[in-house]
TrEMBL record:
Keyword list, A-Z: Carbohydrate metabolism, Glycosidase, Hydrolase, Polysaccharide degradation, Signal
One Pfam family linked to the record: Glyco_hydro_15
InterPro entries: 6-hairpin_glycosidase_sf, 6hp_glycosidase-like_sf, GH15-like, Glucoamylase
GO cellular component, one term: fungal-type vacuole
EC class of the enzyme, as a word: hydrolase
Protein name: glucan 1,4-alpha-glucosidase
Coiled coil: none
Signal peptide annotation: 1-18
Domain GH15-like, first and last residues per copy: 64-491
Entry similarity comment: Belongs to the glycosyl hydrolase 15 family.
Length: 499
């Protein structure tokens, strides 16, 4: 079902009157997309207007997803859709990834009301999560992936366990806890050294430290094995957790977490495949769908959420750039929708992985996903901003393809074969006349992905899960909370890129 924008606005106000903290911060902007008096959507609004309206709507979507009517306080729906498909569940990982953003929103605002709005959501999430850790469940531990919105464990057959969930939740709640403590909160409600554990973060860290090497289902809940995403998320949880542990007088645990993180670090390199030229997503697959390419956008999602600014599989590291480029080229070629539209400046719609057959309702053929496309946008903004801060970047054979696609200037300078040897690099820095031009082009390439989202929105600000690979029509769960969060992240990264 596709809601008209007007209907969505009406629905919003109904929700507002029912639950007071669901307020639209700037309601006027959203309506700008509707032609006065007609209720008809205006498709061709300028990109900036679309982004502003979609951004506000996405923030509202995130707020409305937490503690909705008929749910336990602190539960986050993946989507309000209850049938075809039913996404009215709380997923531990998906929620954690959204809370990772909410913790940033909370940390960065100086506005008192905003702080309260996001702080309440984060506190409720932490409390609800602690409750979930104690609920009887089929995984027999925090790796249980999915709960009913009333906080009881989902009873059906499912991909269990999903051990990335506790790791993501731990680093998201830790980020919140740091800001909260800074504003006078008591960290010991979130982390205490007690064993057996009594607090939400410590429970997730102990589980992660002992189980990161167990077979687990992946972020799409389809493949059992050992996954790059899970490893990188576990590493981050343990490293930021170790700092928290030190602070909470739990230095023995801190040391244990750091040692486990070092073991994970060693494991990560086995995911780089020099022949393929990208980071593969899974190793030791023993159950679930088989992906002959082993190429998956979840590697990019991992770098964005779980990179640690230490160059180890961070978004700007050459291996992640090479992977992002391989994904982009593959989907550019795979989806008919990427070849049809004639408007210039629109980047490719991105899917999860090339062999995907989940169509948003059942199994037929895979499609582009809104969140995958938004993460690619974020990656481009993030890396351009990073190189701008650093004042330089280097091209080599590993990452040249990324630059050639994202920057016409680089494509002109370096023909297809000009940088063969991995060790031979060309560095651009602020003294170079082309430095800024290339960064601008990388940023424009990021805009391409957001233009793609704009193009398919057709005036409707509801972000679904997917677009049909042929027609571009929205598909799958409506109002997908993760789509909103990925969009907000991309726009925030765009704002931070000031060249
Ligand atoms: C999960 O369920 C088991 C029993 O099935 C229970 O012992 C456990 O406490 C539950 N939660 C956790 C975090 O282990
Ligand atoms: C929780 O929700 C599920 C699904 O709607 C339902 O089957 C179950 O009975 C509910 N449990 C409680 C304790 O309300
Ligand atoms: C490109 O790859 C090389 C070799 O790994 C690396 O030294 C360089 O920093 C990378 N450049 C960028 C911009 O990531």
């Amino acid at each position: 079902m596709k809601l008209s924008l007007l209907f969505a606005v009406t629905q919003t106000w109904l929700a507002c009157s029912a639950i007071t903290h669901f307020e639209d911060p700037r309601p006027v902007k959203r309506v700008r997309l509707v032609k006065q008096g007609t209720g008809k959507a205006v498709y061709h609004v300028p990109l900036e207007d679309y982004l502003a309206a979609q951004f506000d709507h996405a923030l509202l979507g995130i707020q409305q997803a937490v503690s909705p009517p008929e749910a336990a306080r602190g539960a986050m729906q993946a989507s309000p859709s209850r049938e075809h498909p039913n996404y009215f569940y709380h997923w531990v990982r998906d929620t954690g990834l959204v809370m990772d953003l909410v913790a940033d929103l909370y940390a960065e605002t100086s506005d008192q009301r905003e702080q309260e709005r996001w702080g309440t959501i984060l506190a409720d999430h932490a409390t609800f999560s602690r409750g979930l850790q104690l609920v009887p469940n089929q995984s027999g531990g925090p790796g249980e992936p999915k709960f009913y919105m009333n906080g009881t464990a989902f009873q059906g057959t499912w991909g269990r366990p999903q051990n990335d969930g506790p790791a993501v939740r731990a680093f998201a709640i830790t980020k919140y806890g740091e800001t909260w403590a800074h504003r006078g909160g008591d960290l010991s409600t979130l982390y205490r050294p007690d064993l057996p554990t009594t607090t939400v973060i410590k429970t997730d860290l102990e589980y992660t430290a002992h189980h990161w090497d167990d077979p687990s289902f992946d972020i799409w809940e389809e493949v059992r094995g050992r996954h790059f995403f899970n490893l990188l998320a576990s590493r981050k949880a343990l490293l930021v957790g170790a700092e928290l542990a030190d602070r909470q007088d739990d230095s023995g645990a801190a040391e244990f977490y750091r040692n486990q993180a070092a073991l994970i670090r060693d494991r990560l390199d086995s995911y780089w495949d020099p022949e393929l030229g990208y980071v593969v997503t899974s190793r030791n697959r023993d159950e679930g769908v088989s992906k002959s390419s082993n190429l998956d956008v979840q590697v990019v999602v991992a770098a964005i959420h779980a990179g640690l600014d230490d160059g180890i599989y961070t978004p700007e590291s050459d291996r992640i750039l090479a992977t992002a480029d391989a994904i982009t080229r593959r989907f550019q070629y795979l989806f008919p929708v990427n070849q049809q539209q004639k408007t210039s400046g629109i980047g490719p719609a991105i899917g999860r992985y090339p062999e995907d057959v989940y169509d948003g309702y059942g199994v037929s053929i895979g499609n582009p996903w809104v969140l995958a496309t938004a993460y690619l946008a974020e990656l481009h903004y993030y890396v351009a901003a990073k190189w701008h801060r650093d004042g330089h970047f280097t091209l080599t054979a590993v990452n040249l393809s990324f630059f050639r696609r994202a920057s016409p200037t680089v494509a002109r300078r370096f023909g297809a074969d000009s940088l063969r040897d991995d060790n031979v690099g060309v560095t651009f820095d602020t003294h170079n006349a082309e430095f800024r031009a290339i960064l601008k082009e990388v940023g424009a390439s990021g805009d391409g992905f957001l233009r793609r989202i704009h193009y398919h929105s057709r005036g409707d600000l509801n972000l679904y899960e997917q677009w049909d690979r042929v027609t571009g029509q929205a598909r799958g769960a409506k109002d997908l909370t993760w789509s909103y969060a990925a969009f907000v992240r991309a726009v925030r990264a765009r704002k931070r890129l000031q060249l």
